[in-house]
Design a protein that fits this description.
Elements (H helix, E strand, L loop, with lengths): L10 H13 L3 H9 L6 E2 H8 L3 H13 L3 E5 L4 E4 L1 H13 L3 H22 L18 H36 L1
Antiparallel strand pairs: 1-3, 2-3
């Protein structure tokens, strides 16, 4: 058993722990957790192998996940599936809609402040305008890429929060009319 002095777990330990935890789950949960990772299309046989279940079992659970919107079928023969990104976007927006107006405003302020810091640091309006090699030596360019990726995430979150804020304002106006 690791002790606090052992340091953080390695990537291998985390992967191994995930696989161990996954193996102890029922088949439907294993298929679901694999489905959440399907950023690229995958066939039933591949998913069944990763979920350690029979292809017919995987297919049954994959069809249920299509029915509730988590997955989309991208091909019929052979049956191929991937995450339904619009479902996950809807979930994120639904969670944001639960925030109070002040919580929403606080998050927007935090994120816009972070974006402004990144704009100033890179003297650019958006991450796509930045050439990472102009801002770091070759051995440090990965750090710049990570920060540019974070900047893109910040921009997406700002758009999502702003969309929720605008929708609330529109809803308030229509209720007042």
């Amino acid at each position: 058993m690791p002790t606090p002095d052992d340091g953080p777990p390695t990537e291998f330990e985390i992967t191994s722990e995930f696989e161990t935890n996954l193996a102890s789950e029922p088949a439907d949960e294993r298929v679901y957790r694999i489905a959440l990772q399907l950023y690229e299309p995958a066939r039933v046989a591949t998913i069944a192998e990763r979920a350690d279940c029979a292809p017919d079992t995987a297919r049954r659970h994959l069809e249920r996940l299509i029915d509730i919107g988590v997955l989309e079928r991208v091909a019929e023969n052979p049956a191929t599936y991937r995450r339904n990104e619009s479902y996950f976007e809807w979930r994120k927006r639904s969670r944001l809609e639960q925030l109070s107006p002040s919580q929403l405003q606080d998050r927007l302020e935090e994120l816009t402040s972070r974006e402004q810091t990144l704009r100033e640091r890179y003297d650019a309006e958006r991450p796509g305008d930045v050439d990472a090699l102009d801002h770091a030596d070759y051995d440090q360019v990965e750090e710049v890429w990570m920060e540019l990726s974070e900047w893109e995430t910040v921009r997406r979150r700002i758009r999502r929060l702003d969309d929720v804020r605008r929708q609330r304002a529109a809803d308030s106006e229509s209720e007042a009319a």
